[in-house]
């Protein structure tokens, strides 16, 4: 006897299908939350803000101009749409999850076609497989467009690992190994006095950032699982040691890591990246994982500080606004990854998904970007920031619920 599918699952399936159709109808090109900042005038402003003592006050009105009039600014500045490798990787992962759920061979074909595009469009000037963003980015220095990033390369490498696990085709593992060699040979490794390391954010900086360090470590471990190249595991463990060492006493992490003088804020989705990465590492290395207490403390902080009524993701612990779609998507993914350890967190993922669909999904098939405290809703569809992340989150949620249905069916007694 088949157990009836829960009503929530049908909602998620319908939303996934609508979003998938929207992406296919609108193509992979799109605007981005960072594209205005990549324009020369705003790059100068961002650089000014970072280097001049009171620069942030001068920058503030221009930030509000971007936030409230982004569409008009794009027209004025003639900002062009881009294809984002990060979005391609996330969408490919979603298609492969959908294939695992439905066995629809077309989903797998679509995913592999996207991986072929990624293979052909890596960052130029590097011998290894790596990817960045197609715009200039101003942080504490200007990072040129397409400079490979640890975060983007990790997301994409995991899509190739998904393909390897599904198809067993060696070429996908070879690409993943090449990306891991990029992490080791082309990123800058900050080593502390204990010999632990933090991978740099891009190949062009020495920034130490916890979430970038941890997603790199998890990708190295996941690749090591299949190839047993122990250099990957050893460096990943050193990166894990580094980030757990600098966890705050309450279980949180600042965005920036030592030896950076800048502390930075504690936010939702970057914390989610860290916890997801730690759980992935734990599942693979088992008894070699020595930080269960740190992970549990991090989960406790995350659950207790980043959600309103266990369904609305807060950007920061002290304020619910802005409600950001990537916080919604990453919260779903993080809770699903952690649900093996903490089964009750699956309900949190479901509640967040239901709230997000109800409040941030447009009937045309896409998700809004942000809610602001003044009631303003930025309804702009962003393929990299919003749609690809939610497609990935929904596909992972449906797959997880589908696996539960299989278990229930196996255990059902006539």
How does this model look, in words?
The chain has 414 residues and is mainly alpha-helical. It has 3 domains: 1-34 and 306-414, no CATH class; 36-78, no CATH class; 122-303, Glycosyltransferase (Alpha/alpha barrel). The protein is 60% helix and 6% strand. The protein is built from 15 helices and 11 strands. The chain has helices spanning 7-26, 40-51, 55-68, 70-77, 85-102, 105-120, 150-167, 170-186, 210-227, 230-245, 268-285, 292-305, 325-338, 345-360, 383-411, and strands spanning 29-30, 82-83, 137-138, 142-143, 189-191, 197-199, 307-308, 312-313, 323-324, 370-371, 377-378. It has a 3-stranded antiparallel β-sheet. The chain has a two-stranded antiparallel ribbon with strand order 1-2. A two-stranded antiparallel sheet has the order 3-4. The longest helix is centred in the C-terminal third of the chain and has 29 residues, at 383-411. The chain is globular.
Question: What is the succession of H and E elements?
Answer: HEHHHEHHEEHHEEHHHHEEEHHEEH
For the largest beta-sheet, the strand count, sense and barrel status come to:
3 strands, antiparallel
Helix content estimate? 55-70%
Pairing-aware structural class of the strands and helices?
Answer: mainly alpha
Number of helices: 15
**Strand order across the biggest sheet?**
9-10-11
